[in-house]
Design a protein that fits this description.
Layout: E1 2-7, H1 12-23, E2 28-32, H2 39-49, E3 54-57, H3 63-72, E4 74-80, H4 87-92, H5 94-114, E5 119-125, E6 136-137, H6 148-166, E7 171-177, E8 179-181, H7 200-208, E9 215-218, E10 230-231, E11 233-235, H8 236-248, E12 259-262, E13 268-269, H9 270-281, E14 287-290, E15 301-302, H10 305-311, H11 319-332
Parallel strand pairs: 1-2, 1-4, 2-3, 4-5, 5-7, 6-15, 7-12, 8-11, 9-14
Antiparallel strand pairs: 10-13
Helix pairs in contact: 1-2, 1-8, 3-5, 5-6, 7-9, 7-11, 9-11
């Protein structure tokens, strides 16, 4: 039986995508090194789906593990999430990011080619745009990432693009997504960062639950409505649906349109998200303005027209639903996966 290989499947986006794959009757095998996730995620996906799937603990840096997976399972296509993902951390640890993200991806692609598997949906990022003069990002914009993380994503995109040009039979989508937040509506799976959160919503929810004293707002002098950074936030459930749509439409991935934005097409500032979260949670969230982080930009949001045209996909959930679901997850799992 053919399977979809999901790398990094125990992570925030990977876990929600696997659940949706299982619910839509795909067979799944996943590999994750659990460096920023927990095996409990796998148990909970199986519980929610009422289905089993194959899990391998391992790292895509390890070619022998990849080889054994492709030898053992009849893989039809790959959804590739595995990698380090913090823009700020990447600037402090560039070698780790290039090794994990770029070398790991090259290892994966080499083994895919060795086994004749030429279908991949890649988890890219809006950070590849850097800080464009036009805030509404089209896929055709010049790319100039300002964080090491963004540079690793662009490098992988370019590798995949070169593969596509050299071997047109490959079917590839680079999904450039914006800022995933929210959680599964059950509250059973969600975002559980191991260390101090580098993203807004998990930091907010940890303040609301009493785990942290206050939210740190990185900069209030951006050229935005209230001076804080503005982002296009997308519900993780919408993002998971986008991966299913990409998988189903891989045959449409021609050379000139393999890069596709996934977002809502609307941006919210940090303080706007904070107010929306306060409305949903009924909590007052104390915050402190601190210095800007290297690698952060003022405002970005997606032009989503290509995703609608090629994938037949668009985001459904608004910012209040995203905050509601994120808060439900945190209330049900105050200490995350490992201590509930």
């Amino acid at each position: 039986m053919t399977k979809i290989l999901v790398t990094g499947g125990a992570g925030f986006i990977g876990s929600h995508t696997i659940l949706k794959l299982l619910n839509e009757d795909y067979d799944v095998v996943t590999i994750d090194n659990l460096s920023n996730s927990s095996y409990e995620v796998i148990n909970r996906i199986k519980f929610l789906a009422n289905k089993n799937f194959d899990f391998i603990k391992g790292d895509i840096i390890d070619k022998s593990i990849l080889k054994s997976i492709f030898s053992k399972f009849n893989i039809e296509a790959v959804i590739h999430f595995a990698g380090l993902k913090s823009s700020s951390d990447s600037n402090n640890n560039p070698i780790s990011y290039f090794e994990n993200n770029v070398v790991g991806s090259i290892n994966l692609l080499k083994e895919m080619a060795n086994f004749g598997i030429k279908k991949i949906v890649f988890s890219s990022s809006a950070t590849v745009y850097g800080e464009p003069s036009t805030k509404k990002c089209k896929e055709t914009f010049e790319l100039s990432p300002i964080s090491v993380y963004g540079k690793t994503k662009l490098l992988i995109e370019n590798i995949l693009l070169d593969i596509k040009f050299a071997q047109p039979e490959w079917r590839i989508f680079n999904l450039r997504y914006f800022n995933p937040i929210g959680a599964h509506p059950s509250g059973i799976i969600g975002e559980d960062p191991r260390n101090v959160p580098s993203n807004l919503i998990p930091f907010l929810t940890q303040v609301a639950i009493g785990k942290r004293e206050q939210l740190l707002v990185f900069g209030d002098t951006y050229d935005t409505s209230d001076g804080t950074g503005k982002r296009d936030y997308i519900h993780v459930e919408d993002l998971a649906s986008g991966h299913i749509a990409a998988l189903r439409n891989l045959e449409k991935a021609e050379k000139n349109n393999i890069n596709v934005n996934l977002g809502t097409g609307q941006s919210y500032s940090v303080l706007e998200v904070l107010r929306a979260f306060e409305q949903c949670s009924g909590k007052n969230i104390p915050y402190k303005i601190v210095g800007k982080r290297l690698g952060d930009v003022g405002e970005l949001y997606a032009d989503t027209s290509l995703a609608k045209r090629i994938l037949g996909w668009e985001a459904k959930f608004d910012i209040l639903q995203m905050c509601n679901d994120a808060w439900r997850w945190q209330k049900m799992n105050p200490e995350g996966y490992d201590k509930t």
